[in-house]
């Protein structure tokens, strides 16, 4: 019952539901989620940590990025798997979340993450002089 409560609490937040909806489309890095949600990087990371602890989201390293994706919950006797299957259906049918997903479909990590690295290098460069 504790795991079920943790999962339900993790789902009781609009930003976390939006994150799950975006991860239905494809794996994403923190900067992509930050841009889509319009919240700070620490807030995105906190939401992802809560979803990870509930067993709903996993992460993998993909080159220089850490990709977040939905956890594979396939055991039909496991409560989270049943809940997850129903949740996915509901999120895909919700008009507001579908529109949100479509708006975020153009967000590309290549244009988001690289400029931050360049700015960091530019800031560090004057100190080297």
Please specify the SSE layout and strand pairing:
Layout: H1 2-11, H2 14-25, H3 30-37, H4 41-53, E1 57-62, E2 65-70, H5 79-93, H6 95-104, H7 109-128
Antiparallel strand pairs: 1-2
Description:
- The protein has 129 residues and is mainly α.
- It has one domain (2-128): Orthogonal Bundle (Arc Repressor Mutant, subunit A).
- It is 68% helix and 9% strand.
- It has seven helices and two strands, in the order ααααββααα.
- The protein has a two-stranded antiparallel sheet.
- Helix 1 (2-11) runs antiparallel to helix 4, helix 2 crosses helix 6 (95-104) and helix 3 crosses helix 4 (41-53).
- It starts with a helix and ends with a helix.
- The model is unreliable at 116-129 (pLDDT under 50).
The percent range for strand residues is 5-15%
Order of adjacent strands in the largest pleated sheet: 1-2
Q: Report the average pLDDT across residues.
A: 86
Uncertain segments of ≥5 residues (pLDDT<50)? 116-129
Would you summarize the structure shown here?
The chain has 129 residues and is mainly alpha-helical.
Question: Descriptors for this entry?
Answer:
single chain, about 130 residues, mainly alpha, Arc Repressor Mutant, subunit A, 2 strands, about 10% strand, disordered C terminus
């Amino acid at each position: 019952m504790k795991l079920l409560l943790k999962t339900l609490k993790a789902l009781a937040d609009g930003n976390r539901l939006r994150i799950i909806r975006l991860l239905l489309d494809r794996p994403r890095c923190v900067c992509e989620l930050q841009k889509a949600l319009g919240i700070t990087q620490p807030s995105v990371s906190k939401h992802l940590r809560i979803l990870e602890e509930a067993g709903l989201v996993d992460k993998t390293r993909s080159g220089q990025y850490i990709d977040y994706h939905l956890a594979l919950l396939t055991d039909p006797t496991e409560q989270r798997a049943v809940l997850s299957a129903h949740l996915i259906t509901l999120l895909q049918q919700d008009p507001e979340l579908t529109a949100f997903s479509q708006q975020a479909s153009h967000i590309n990590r290549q244009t988001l993450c690289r400029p931050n690295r360049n700015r960091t290098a530019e800031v560090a460069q004057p100190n080297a002089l």
